[in-house]
């Protein structure tokens, strides 16, 4: 699925506003606001998502990204989570993902907080040198006191945490998938556990197809 590519404006490829949604081996392409993961519980598995500015965003969804390829095609932030209160369940967790792109080294960020309780975790993932040493970028009007922007056990040239933004942090242990999908996710109709267990190659398009 592709949003209309333009460098100065929103172009959604997909909008998720229902509960219990699973996406498998998909390809979402765009520039700004590619994937609107906004409501419900979402699973994205072995899927390619490309963009440049806040291209994975939303307000109340709990979303688990498993073995996905995240491709930055321009300078900007990958995520913009809009969790606006402690009662808001929203959380994005990226597990075993690979971050790469065509933008220059150090010009992409793991995310910026759309709202003051934003919650995003990157874990067990490969981060290329496109990631800025600060990792995260501040949204100027957002209070950083209650942000939850964390990393755990990432690798690659963009994974060093020594110079990360002061409002971010490093976890002592990974977030379990049950925190996002629920304790009974293996029997949920929308979760294809057989697909998740397959040793499939990551879905990554050649550069010329971005």
Automatic annotation (TrEMBL):
Residues 7-170 form the Pectinesterase catalytic domain. Pathway: Glycan metabolism; pectin degradation; 2-dehydro-3-deoxy-D-gluconate from pectin: step 1/5. It is an enzyme of class 3 (hydrolase). One of its GO terms (biological process) is cell wall modification. It comes from the Eukaryota. GO terms for molecular function: pectinesterase activity. Its EC number is 3.1.1.11. Keywords: Aspartyl esterase, Hydrolase. Belongs to the pectinesterase family. This is pectinesterase.
